[in-house]
Automatic annotation (TrEMBL):
InterPro entries: PsdUridine_synth_cat_dom_sf, PsdUridine_synth_TruD, PsdUridine_synth_TruD_CS, PsdUridine_synth_TruD_insert, TruD_catalytic, TruD_insert_sf, TruD_pseudoU_synthase. It holds the Pfam family TruD. It catalyses: uridine(13) in tRNA = pseudouridine(13) in tRNA. PROSITE patterns: TRUD, UPF0024. It comes from Lacimicrobium alkaliphilum. The active site is at 81 (nucleophile). This is tRNA pseudouridine synthase D. Keywords: Isomerase, tRNA processing. It is an enzyme of class 5 (isomerase).
Length: 352
């Protein structure tokens, strides 16, 4: 069995424009928005750090080593792109210990901007969102690009981006070998492989909804997610009120992040989701056997505060996304982007 990642459907048909992404790290800037201010006291140190050419897990390992704590004592809310300039928070748990001299932290490609104490752990997904500044270069076939930018502002498929699958789909291939019996002892690699498999099945389900014309259509028994929250409910049928709430983005359609048991969907939606899982039983059954629990993810991703500057062969984009949203999913609906990474001298660990 081979798991491909090029077959997923486009919402606005395949783009005609082409260009380069990440020609240099400064072409892909990400700033995490925490959404609250650390309180200034407590046994957790929140470290605001800028990095370039480094993946999040590797930086966390180096912070743990510098602070003299177990790697599990260092947390982060979200993983950020490796080949980019990114700014994000790390949490270091130091109960009863003196705070390190962060100015002495030396890691090529990383700079600590500030640190603040807080009384609670920095948990996964706690941040409000991420702000992006992208530059796409050497554009061609841009005649309809402005029109697509307007459409993209209304939302795109909430696909997991190529970062989740690793360079040359390495995480995904590793996950498939794991399902076929290979043992992965490295905890981080195993986690990335499992995440890639789960993301692949989600993308496959979302793509099929688009092909069936159900991206904005409520199926009986669909699970609707309340915007900006983890709360959801089952839609019995597409009544007038539900359709209005869906159109206003108060609620969002969702697809399963596969795990043990049946999805929470019912009726027509459950039948559809089970059909996809059955078609790719090696993946769905593997995720169940790994002990993952069923979860949901919205199928629409809406970039906020989208702005752009388009010249003859360069597009500058700025927008914000909620936690878990991939900027590459936005770019995918705009143009066929070739990644041309330069200066990736900090090529450690697995790309996120």
């Amino acid at each position: 069995m081979i798991l491909e990642t090029q077959q997923w459907a486009y919402l606005y048909t395949k783009p005609q424009a082409k260009g380069l992404i990440k020609q240099q790290p400064e072409d892909f800037i990400v700033r995490e928005t925490l959404g609250f201010e650390p309180c200034g006291e407590g046994e957790h140190i929140f470290v605001w750090l800028r990095k370039c050419g480094l993946n999040t897990a590797y930086v966390a390992e180096q912070l743990a080593r510098f602070a003299g704590v177990h790697p599990r004592a260092v947390t982060f809310s979200g993983r950020k792109d490796k080949y980019a300039v990114t700014e994000q928070w790390f949490g270091v748990h130091l109960p009863g210990k003196r705070e390190p001299q962060w100015d002495d932290f030396a890691l090529p490609g990383a700079t600590i901007i500030e640190s603040k104490r807080h009384n609670k752990k920095l948990r996964t997904g706690i941040h409000k969102g991420n702000q992006f500044e992208l530059v796409l270069r050497d554009l061609t076939n841009t005649d309809t690009l402005e029109q697509r930018l307007t459409k993209v502002g209304q939302g795109v498929p909430n696909y997991f981006g190529p970062q989740r699958f690793g360079t040359n789909n390495g995480n995904l291939h590793l996950g498939l070998r794991m399902l076929q019996g290979e043992t992965i002892r490295n905890r981080q690699k195993r986690s990335m492989a499992i995440s890639a498999l789960r993301a692949w099945l989600f993308n496959q389900t979302l793509s099929e909804r688009i092909r069936l014309g159900c991206f904005d259509k409520i199926l009986a028994g669909d699970i609707m997610v309340l915007s900006g929250s983890n709360s959801y409910f089952c839609a019995g049928s597409a009544d007038k009120e539900l359709l209005h709430r869906l159109a206003s983005r108060d609620i969002l359609l969702s697809a399963p992040l596969w795990g043990q048991g049946l999805p929470d969907s019912q009726a027509e939606a459950l039948t559809f989701e089970q059909q996809i899982a059955t078609e790719y039983e090696l993946v769905s059954k593997g995720l169940e056997d790994l002990g993952l629990k069923q979860d949901r993810r919205p199928i629409r991703l809406s970039p906020q505060n989208l702005d752009w500057q388009l010249t003859e062969d360069t597009l500058k984009l700025t927008f914000s996304l909620p936690p878990g949203g991939f900027a590459t999913a936005v770019v995918r609906e705009l143009l066929i982007a070739e990644e041309q990474i330069k200066g990736a001298e900090h090529a450690n660990s697995t790309e996120q």
